Amino acid sequence: MTDPILTVKDLSKTFGAFTAVDGVTFELAAGSSIGIVGESGSGKTTVARMIIGLEQPSAGAITCCGNDRSHPSRATGARRARAREAQMVFQDPYTSLDPHQTIHQTLAEAVRLHETNSATTYSERVQALADMVSLDARLLASMPGHLSGGQRQRVAIARALAADPRVLVLDEAVAALDVSIQAQILNLLADIRDATGLAYVFITHDLAVVRQVTEHSIVMQKGRIVESGRTADLLRNPKHPYTRALLDSVPRPGWTPARRAVPVVEPVA
Question: Same domain, yes or no, for 78 and 184?
Fold first, then answer.
């Protein structure tokens, strides 16, 4: 059995007296995908930020690609090495891109930071990334302000892939998009994983999304994992009342807007 590409063990994060993450543990196999599900304030984004080094854990350990990543990297070389292990795609495609750079310039800048294959020119690598996310020459020459939300998120994904990471952390990466565009991006992510063997950590509040893109899921409430397992099993037969409440809030035939709010379910001590 091969070692997991990512291991998170007893991870905790406090901000003053507030505990945002409390004892989170999971593993991610190479090429697989795990969903971290919970409503706003559950701690899932804080977990994502600790994985890629934007936040330092208060306790616990993170191992990625066999390297201890429990603390943010300080030196430039160390940060770039870490970036080639794990990259993050953020929720808002409208603010994550430089409005003063064309899409080609944005991707070229990322390629220059991370490209190690001297046989590939920067332009060739930019074109390969653009092809991977279905961006044509017209879009590459455009400014971010001229692109739709779905197109901008494709750019954000391509920029993350420029580092050739082993793990891609997607923090509510389709939440700001309408349903039809969400489906396109999710299909794109599935195709990329098939082509590259990337492993995904998919952060979301939407159980309908994890059904489509993950094999395993964990459900977080108030910083703790309250349920975990294979995604299909978890969605078919949830054990925890909070997971059932999240499922009840997913629109389906006969669903009414009054059911959108997730009921308050106190975590079990």
Answer: yes
